[in-house]
Amino acid sequence: MNFSSDTAAPAHPAILEAMLAASKGPAPSYGADPWTAAAQKSLRDAFETDLDIWLVPSGTAANALALATLCPPHGAILCHDEAHIERDERGAPEFFTGGAKLSLLSGKHARIELPALKRKLDANRHDFVHETPVHVLSLSNLTECGAAYRPFEIAERAALAHAAGLAVHLDGARLANALVSTGASPAEMTWRAGVDVLCFGATKNGAVGCEAIILFGAARQRLMDLKVRVKRAGHMPPKMRFLGAQMGAYLKDGLWLDLARRANTSATRLADALTRAGAELAHPCDGNEVFVHLPEGIADKLAKAGATFYPWIDGSHRFVCSWATEPHEIDALAGHLG
Amino acid sequence: MNFSSDTAAPAHPAILEAMLAASKGPAPSYGADPWTAAAQKSLRDAFETDLDIWLVPSGTAANALALATLCPPHGAILCHDEAHIERDERGAPEFFTGGAKLSLLSGKHARIELPALKRKLDANRHDFVHETPVHVLSLSNLTECGAAYRPFEIAERAALAHAAGLAVHLDGARLANALVSTGASPAEMTWRAGVDVLCFGATKNGAVGCEAIILFGAARQRLMDLKVRVKRAGHMPPKMRFLGAQMGAYLKDGLWLDLARRANTSATRLADALTRAGAELAHPCDGNEVFVHLPEGIADKLAKAGATFYPWIDGSHRFVCSWATEPHEIDALAGHLG
Amino acid sequence: MNFSSDTAAPAHPAILEAMLAASKGPAPSYGADPWTAAAQKSLRDAFETDLDIWLVPSGTAANALALATLCPPHGAILCHDEAHIERDERGAPEFFTGGAKLSLLSGKHARIELPALKRKLDANRHDFVHETPVHVLSLSNLTECGAAYRPFEIAERAALAHAAGLAVHLDGARLANALVSTGASPAEMTWRAGVDVLCFGATKNGAVGCEAIILFGAARQRLMDLKVRVKRAGHMPPKMRFLGAQMGAYLKDGLWLDLARRANTSATRLADALTRAGAELAHPCDGNEVFVHLPEGIADKLAKAGATFYPWIDGSHRFVCSWATEPHEIDALAGHLG
Amino acid sequence: MNFSSDTAAPAHPAILEAMLAASKGPAPSYGADPWTAAAQKSLRDAFETDLDIWLVPSGTAANALALATLCPPHGAILCHDEAHIERDERGAPEFFTGGAKLSLLSGKHARIELPALKRKLDANRHDFVHETPVHVLSLSNLTECGAAYRPFEIAERAALAHAAGLAVHLDGARLANALVSTGASPAEMTWRAGVDVLCFGATKNGAVGCEAIILFGAARQRLMDLKVRVKRAGHMPPKMRFLGAQMGAYLKDGLWLDLARRANTSATRLADALTRAGAELAHPCDGNEVFVHLPEGIADKLAKAGATFYPWIDGSHRFVCSWATEPHEIDALAGHLG
Q: Per-residue pLDDT tens for D158-192?
């Protein structure tokens, strides 16, 4: 009954087997190996466009490197006040950018709302030396509260941002879960909707530790800048083949979407069990996370029974399912709700 | 005939198998897992002392994080002008420290010599606001030219540094190779000789991607500072168990020393073959690297035959053996020397 | 009719004359001169305690240097969301700290309210590596909306901050105006109320360009750190005597309080004139600034008549008086209000 | 007998009088005042070209800001190993650039020599991600040893730098002294010789505290970037008129060249007196500084007699004359040499 986080799950066997298979003979270091090239090709196929990439072992690294290629030290990044980059990365964006600001918007379900975004962008002045203008809009899909944006919602926000001269970053630590629940294609949800740089997560969905920073369209011109930052941050380990192999296996034959589907299905079942027992959904269950207001006494009871899950800042509790969540875990939890 | 670098080698099967074995069931994220705890215990045993650690996937990350915990933004790090931290890390120490300087010393075989070190430390003024004082002495063993310091040599340098109020960092990307060739124990070569923080490499000697930052003695008080920097730099991936598993397997039953012995033996055989063919050693062959001045025409001949190796800045050529170098590769190379 | 800002005013003659008087013969550079020593002594007298100082030409420099001595790169500074350090310094605190965050609280009249402060401090976790804890509470007096805190209000906030392990910074760009209107002594408003580091402004109140960073009590141990940061930021000009001379003259015979009294009196008269004409005070007029909601059409009328003043983000307009504001300017403005 | 530094001198009366004259009535803040505009016009006239400027109170600020506009955080600045930016600015270039490196060349009299410069530039690789390429060549004229480059020497070095894709920075803290001794015009020594950004000193030559960062030619496109950095570093004090007034007075009617001529003449007389007494010039006396190897016992004797001067790292002693050095001071010193 471990619902603490999808990061608590092990790696999927197919991904570890791909690492084993990649461990044969010498290979060029620092990303010039065939596995990394194959991963890039698989990403091109999945996203139906040409693109450039770098692979890193953590979402914090992916987000911070992506943002640093888009925002100067004296600029700001617009994001939701519950965003992972604001709340949970110990100032990594500030460190990697050399001291940029995060400028915060609030909004239900950790979603950025259009009117607030418009107001903020209208007040943005790139030529006023005293204030710090925003240079990047950072969205998350799934949001930190487990809600999904649909492609047209990403597109609306990105269009406003681009019109105001901003670049668009998407934190896709749980993008697979959002794609499965919305039925959108990878392309529709990202570059076709105006995303310039995507952090595409695999770790929470079955990898050992692998996230792709993906540059689309004009942002591809920043590849050399990105690689310099990557090197300087210690994120260019010599044996990159083992990151390439992970990403290749993750995408192969739709494994990534199968794993996300599995996790989402578990979450739906869990949400049903919880709401049947009197809990109320605090946020839409659009992926693999369930946020509920629990009836009095239930949290303690579940914890005593050995279930792991987290209290959330809004008074709700968060339960996360992963690709590895077993039906019997949900049944067991449900059994303690009675 | 791949002698380009020990980073071109694959990972040792025992290390990959340990990762597979660690991929069972849920585990706490961010380093609170049992594999990371076991790795720390194994390191304590190997180094015969209590210590604190963090595991990262690259030597650049290890060095830069270690140095940043020891040197303020307005201080300097004393190192050899051929050191990896100066030459090959794209300014990672400067980035992680927030703008500290590297202060350079020259010396044969990329070794720091005592008289130059003394002169530098004598001129160091911690209370003079206009100049940048050195706060850390960084040594490398093996050096960038493949030479080894023996424990008393580390101790002499560390004693001078400590007397001048500096901390001592050891870049041990190839420490195993230096231990094997000198016969020193891990403890003798590090904390007993005055090393405060060690970057202990495994990647070049058989790991997938794993280096331990090891804090000894009083430096252990900096653990929280180190962890904050680690998090902020994206070097706290959620599934740390896979780093812990690598380090555990690397140390188990002396695998690490066996692999280093294998690589050193290959290098000795290669050095013999090269010198018999008229090459001259440019630097002592104290580990798994051979630097030679080749007779005219030989470099081209070898390259045409398919051997890979690198020209060095001093006019010599570098050949690196790894744990995976096969005797037949050396024989094949030797066959082209005639 | 220039009510644009107190920074538009010239310097007071006594301050320029002191600079002239200091320009005699050779003097030690970098702050070791007698004028800087005398300024420090005058500040000790004015604040009735021992203290350490550094003098800089701008409030942005003073605030950023002070904050950087109190907050590590991986920490946060708690301030009001309208604070000058957040709104008007182009990320100087982020630059000087090496990437710290500003954590924002809202509250009427740009004042930090106790309940919001308590909630924020209760949630602060210094030992949780993923989040960025606050290390400093930054207050402004006058606030950005021209309101004054009284000493007990500073003390209440500082006590909460200290209890939570924070240091307390006071942005006193207009401290003289706050002292005059509240009747508090410099000591009561600062170190006796728990302020650790004060940025004590003179520029807006008659100096050429001079702000003192003042370290009180235990914060004095940070003097060397401050001086290193000062040097590294180019804020240690050789001829420091000219900054020392300014501060000495500013404090001599209570000039600073006389000038603030003059400015406050002008503001009171201006506020009377404006409110008599139907304007409503948007914020308390506790110093030399008047924020009013103007009756329709008045802003345009005044601007056409040649008056200078600024629209504020809350829909009000800001009128600032300085030591140099002349009664006839207020009368002239009043004449256009009818 | 104060020969400690030209920074120990007072300000020239004409410069202080200009500040007094500027202190009349309200003026726009932050550099939009007429005095700053006039200073820019005077600099255009003096340098015979259009240019953009910013005025700061210290040479360290000027150099660091200029370098930060030319060099990214992951680049390097090529300079002499005795350069002020390397030795005497506590890492200000590293701070302002966000962690760039200084890459050092040696050479007699603190001059960069052509062959060493060529070798360095030949090895520079902008597209190799592991190493830190140089982006800027920084020259000083006068050098730190008081020697002057002539215009063709600046031009030779700048041409090599430009051909290698570098920008050229000139630290002109004592440019006036170099112009007087070489007879070169400001234009010949700077932009016509290939200088992109000049730090033009006035403080050591009679100002209260004023240095101009001057952007020439294509570098003028970096003005907004420079201003943002200036603001963020606290170097945009509100009452900029007092910096503008200084620079205007400094340039008016050739005052700056008169003052430099006076200082150079004093240095020549001092050098004569010292060499007649058996001292040997350690470096060419091309400006207002005299570096001599003193006969045994003389340094102590002079110090006891009350003369102030500094020992230099090469075993010589440095004596600096300023615009305010009086003939009788030199006579007095000469009297103690006998």
A: 999 999 999 999 999 999 999 999 999 999 999 99
Residue C226 pLDDT: 98
DSSP code of D21? H
Q: By CB neighbour count within 10 A (0-12 exposed, 13-18 middle, 19+ buried), where does D119 fall? A: exposed
Q: Are residues A120 and A236 in the same domain?
A: yes
One domain for residues B45 and B118: yes
Range of the domain at A161: 12-253
The structure tokens listed for D291 are: 């570096």
**D332 interfaces chain C, CB cutoff of 8 Å:** no
- Examine residue A3 and state whether it is found in any structural domain, yes or no: no
CA-to-CA separations, C276 to B36, C290, C295, C337, D298, in angstroms, rounded: 73, 14, 11, 9, 79
- Chain D contacts of B95, Cβ < 8 Å? 73-74, 99
B41 to chain C nearest CA, in Å? 23
Nearest to A208 among B60, B95, B242 (CB): B242
Segment A101-110 shows an average pLDDT of 97
Same structural domain, C234 and C309: no
User: Residue D338: pLDDT above 80?
Assistant: no
Supply the pLDDT for residue B206: 98
Tokens of D263: 């200082």
Of A223, A253, A283, the residue that ends a domain is: A253
Domain count, chain A: 2
With 0-12 / 13-18 / 19 or more C-beta atoms within 10 angstroms meaning exposed / middle / buried, residue B163 is exposed
Q: Share the mean pLDDT of chain C.
A: 97
Q: What is the pLDDT of residue B1?
A: 87
Name the token pair of B188.
């003798």
Which residues does C159 contact at the CB level (< 8 Å), separation at least 6?
A: C194
Tokens of D50: 């259009």
The count of CB pairs under 8 A between chains A and D is: 29
Tokens of D206: 């009679």
Interval C136-159 mean pLDDT: 98
User: Within this chain, do residues B116 and B210 fall inside the same structural domain, yes or no?
Assistant: yes
Q: Of B194, B220, B253, which marks where a domain is finished?
A: B253
C144 interface with A at CB cutoff 8 Å? no
Residue D36: the pLDDT is 98
Residues C211 and C70 in one domain: yes
Say how far apart CA D52 and CA D54 lie, in whole Å: 7
User: In CATH, what number is assigned to the domain containing residue D315?
Assistant: 3.90.1150.10
Nearest to B131 among D87, D131, D132 (CB): D87
Nearest CA in chain A to C126: A90
Q: Which residues of chain A make contact with C74, given a CB cutoff of 8 A?
A: 90-91, 95
Helix, strand, or coil (residue D169) = strand
Q: Tell me: the pLDDT tens digits for D73-124? A: 999 999 999 999 999 999 999 999 999 999 999 999 999 999 999 999 999 9
**What CATH number does residue D133 fall under?**
3.40.640.10
Asked if the structure places residue B325 within a domain, the reply is yes
Which secondary structure element, helix H or strand E, spans residue D105, and what is its range?
strand D101-105
Helix/strand/coil for C291? strand
Q: Which of C82, C85, C86, C90 to mutate to test the interface with A (most CBs of A within 10 A)?
A: C90
> Are C147 and C232 found together in one domain?
yes
Please name which of B154, B149, B148, B158 lies closest in space to residue B287, comparing C-alpha atoms: B148
Question: What is the per-residue pLDDT across D234-272, written as a single tens digit (0 to 9) for each?
Answer: 999 999 999 999 999 999 999 999 999 999 999 999 999
Give A 80-119 residues with CB within 8 A of chain C. Answer: 87-91, 94-95, 97-102, 104
CB contact under 8 A, A91 and C102: no
- Chain B: give the shortest CA distance to residue C129, in Å: 6
* Model pLDDT, residue C59: 98
In a domain, C2, yes or no: no
ipTM of the complex model: 0.97
How does DSSP classify residue D150? Answer: -
Residue B65 within any structural domain of the chain: yes
